[in-house]
Design goal:
Blueprint lengths: L5 H11 L1 H36 L6 H19 L12 E8 L5 E10 L1 E4 L4 E2 L4 E7 L21 E10 L7 E10 L6 E8 H5 L3 H9 L4 E5 L5 E11 L2 E10 L2
Parallel strand pairs: 1-11
Antiparallel strand pairs: 1-5, 2-4, 2-6, 3-5, 6-7, 7-8, 9-10, 10-11
Length: 253
Amino acid sequence: MTPINTNSWRHQNPHSKQPIINILILIVINIYTLSIFVFQEAKETMASEEAAQNVAQLTDKEKSTISEMMKAAQTLLNNSNIDNTERQLATLSGGIKNCQDRPILLNKTLDGFGSFVSDPSESIGGFDDGGFVHRAPSFNIPHLPGGGGGPGPVIIGCKAAVVYGTMDKALPQLGWLLAWFKPQNSDQNKVYVEAGLLEELMKKEWSEIDAKLNASGSVSSYVDSSTGAVAAAQIEDQAHNLALLGATFSTLI
């Protein structure tokens, strides 16, 4: 009887495990690849849902209210002390309609660049309206781009955002965000709105709002399905370096 060479068996046995190791490696790679795919799908789904919320399409009622607010914004501008020299700077006059019965309070102002000639209304009653006038910074008016007078600071325009929220004790506390950009010597105006829980809107940093504003156009609307809060706005030129903005804050109920 031939004896079994156990030394040879022990030497070769580790190599017999190699196919199993290879299979395990393939399984890990497949799981990793699948997780990346699932994560990417989730990101695309979230982006699609957000795009569905922020649709640049206005209802007939919103169009009518926004037109009314633009007229109010024109009146506010006419009553503001802006001389002819200051009118060389990009200026935006805005009107906001609170289209629901809960009074709202100005909770936050986020500055891009520019200053308020007329500050945003501190509060807006139920079914009432408010407004503001915002203007590009006056670094050196004689040195406006294309205006002669030699080189000077580049004036980009006026850009900012406000956040309003319900001020009563009823829940949920709703919020509405309005952001705008009136560029200097350009008609590429932009507006962005968002609505939902006030506490969530208050957490938003300017960098996030600015990115969404830059990606927006002259019309913006937003419906938050979880709270029923709705916002809509439009911005359009009234004259050179002068734009009017109308906005509505409301609820689905």
